[in-house]
Amino acid sequence: MGDHEELGRSAHASSDNRPLVSVIMPTYNGAHFVAETVAAIQAQTYENWELICVDDASKDCTVEVLRQLAARDERIRVLERKVNGGPSAARNTAIAHAHGEFIAVQDQDDLSLPDRFEIQVRRFAEDPGLGLLGAGAVCIDQNGEETGTREPKRVTDVPIRHHLYSCDAPFAHSTVMVRREVFDRIGGYDQALRGPEDYDMYLRAALHCRLGALQQPVLKYRRHAGQFSVTERAEQVLLADFARRRAVAALSGMPFDEERELARVRALVGQK
Fold first, then answer.
1. Which of 97, 213, 216, 229 could disulfide-pair with 152, CB 3.0 to 4.6 Å?
2. How do residues 72-121 score in pLDDT, each as one tens digit?
3. For 6-19, what is each residue's pLDDT tens digit?
4. Which residues contact 128 (CB under 8 A, 6 or more apart)?
5. Which DSSP symbol is given to 11?
6. Which residues contact 56 (CB under 8 A, 6 or more apart)?
């Protein structure tokens, strides 16, 4: 199966006709958090889901923990990448194996609140033209203690677009649910943009669907010193600018030399 192998059993087939939610979770050296994260998915009031965990060549016992969890719940599948390719590659692998009408983004150290899927699926049902939905989050620290809240910077389509094209991502990535057809149209995540891949995905999705956000929190968003967003901030700023300029060019029909512009960013951050 190429650079990964699948572990665990087939996806759970629900007896009802509610849309299946495919939860995609990349993992890397996440043994300390993944059991709690999976337990939060299992506690969802909306039960028609599958969880696809893609381990990105962890060096700790993350895969062993996930295997044990999958052995006890047939809705959980584990894919193991043999070579580390970054979170975007892992998410794309998960999407390729997903069966759901909706894709729920989940990071290994964040905790979905029990009614997250129920609330988000209901919102999509109320608005068939909605393609991507973010939400608010409760911020927690390394130990799970609440430290504040992260509210969406915008909640309706036009203000969200204005924010995207002028600033940054308007909500935490792990709060997002997306219609599968949107991912099919945009081709998943851009694996060259390690860091602001969420922001880039929103920009490209905005070309194909309406965007929205819920003010209420659906997630506990964990902040800790080891996060990529903390350790690689300068590179992320440059890559986010690249993604924004590319999106503006696509929106206006202007040419954009992706290879040259990405090479310029890599030169600025000292990459080969």
1. 213
2. 999 999 999 999 999 999 999 999 999 999 999 999 999 999 999 999 99
3. 444 333 444 456 78
4. none
5. P
6. 26, 27, 28, 81, 84, 85, 86, 87, 89, 90
What's the pLDDT at 136?
98
Percent of the chain, pLDDT > 90? 82
Cβ count within 10 A of residue 116: 29
Residue in the block written with tokens 């992706």: 258
Calpha distance 157→249 (Å, rounded):
20
Work out the burial of residue 55: count CB atoms within 10 Å of its CB; fewer than 13 is exposed, 13-18 middle, 19 or more buried. buried
Structure tokens at 194: 């390690």
Q: For residue 44, count other CB atoms closer than 10 A to its CB.
A: 19
Residue-wise pLDDT for 201-213, tens only, equals 999 999 999 999 9
The bridge status of strand 49-56 relative to strand 76-81 is parallel
Q: In sequence order, which residues have a C-beta less than 8 Å from that of residue 95 and are 6 or more positions away? A: 22, 24, 103, 180, 183, 188
Query: What CA–CA distance (Å, rounded) separates 197 from 201?
Result: 6
Band (pLDDT 50/70/90 cuts) for residue 234 is: confident
Give the 3-state secondary structure of residue 52. Answer: strand
Instruction: Tell me which long-range contacts 1-6 makes (C-beta under 8 A, separation of at least 24).
Output: 3/81, 3/82, 3/83, 3/85, 4/54, 4/79, 4/80, 4/81, 4/82, 4/93, 5/79, 5/80, 5/82, 6/77, 6/78, 6/79, 6/80, 6/97
The H-assigned helical ranges of 8-156 are 34-42, 62-72, 87-96, 116-126
What distance in Å separates the CA atoms of residue 230 and residue 150, rounded to the nearest whole number?
A: 16
- Say what the pLDDT of residue 233 is: 77
